[in-house]
Design brief:
Oligomer: single chain
Radius of gyration: 23 Å
Largest sheet: 7 strands, antiparallel
Order of helices and strands: HHHEEEHEEEEHHEHEEE
CATH architecture of the largest domain: 3-Layer(aba) Sandwich
CATH superfamily of the largest domain: Chorismate lyase-like
Structural class: alpha+beta
Helix content: 25-40%
Length: 241
């Protein structure tokens, strides 16, 4: 006796249809979806089923439900991948985002111990990330003359046969200070992510220390986790007295 496959819940099909319309541009960022009453009538389902579908679409980051106002299509967010040794701009370009870089002239720090490189990353025309990299010597001298508006730091290092072996990265919530807020064109106090990353060479010594300040409404953070070899440690910032 053949068993029939279980039918897909109606709200899954509705969520998939709404997501397809959003991704195709039928509903554009910032636009309000039709009212829940109109959508439930259009799909021929109850309000409860329609609300289940909207929760799925919201969990996927495609819409935002605002009580008393309606459901709005969200601005698309770039994903900052935590599973790669590539530079941030390389990650974003691989995802199909248009990334432009504005850079200040590199500066020597600590009596020549490191080269400081400061950049602002723009997604489209919107400043989204402020990044400072400290490249330890002798590696800093190899990339001193590079135009970092056109070339990524990690690509420039690889051109000189510098091999990076691993990186550690810590991500923490913060708010914009006055200086970085001005560079990103945002008011002071806006929520951000701050990424502190150290990249090591084959000898185990640090090559690059990075700090990236990422606007919270411009990007989301994703990590790929394997079934084996994963170790997680949760830490608290609260000091116990």
């Amino acid at each position: 006796m053949n068993q029939q496959a279980p039918r897909e819940p109606k709200y899954h099909a509705i969520a998939a249809d709404l997501a397809a319309k959003i991704r195709s541009g039928a509903y554009r960022p910032g636009q309000a979806l039709p009212s829940q009453r109109d959508l439930s009538a259009a799909y021929g389902v109850t309000m409860m089923t329609l609300r289940q579908a909207l929760r799925v679409v919201e969990d996927d980051g495609l819409v935002s439900q605002q009580p008393g106002r309606g459901t709005f299509v969200t601005e698309p967010r770039a994903a900052y991948q935590l599973d790669s040794l590539r530079g941030l701009a390389e990650d974003l370009r691989e995802q199909g985002h248009t990334v432009r870089t504005e850079a200040r002239a590199p500066a020597e720090l600590g009596a020549g111990r490191a080269l400081r490189i400061e950049r602002v990353r723009l997604l489209g025309d919107r400043p989204a990330v402020h990044q400072v990299s400290w490249v330890r010597q002798p590696y800093g001298s190899l990339v001193r003359g590079v135009d970092f508006t056109q070339v990524s730091l990690y690509a420039a290092l690889s051109e000189h046969d510098v091999v990076v072996h691993r990186a550690t990265e810590r991500l923490r919530p913060a708010v914009l200070d006055t200086e970085i807020a001005a560079l990103l064109g945002q008011p002071e106090g806006v929520p951000v992510f701050v990424s502190d990353r150290v990249t090591y060479g084959m000898d185990g010594d640090p090559v690059v220390v990075d700090q990236a300040t990422i606007l919270g409404d411009a990007m989301e953070v994703r990590a790929e986790r394997a079934a084996t070899g994963l170790s997680l440690r949760w830490t608290s910032n609260v000091e116990h007295g």
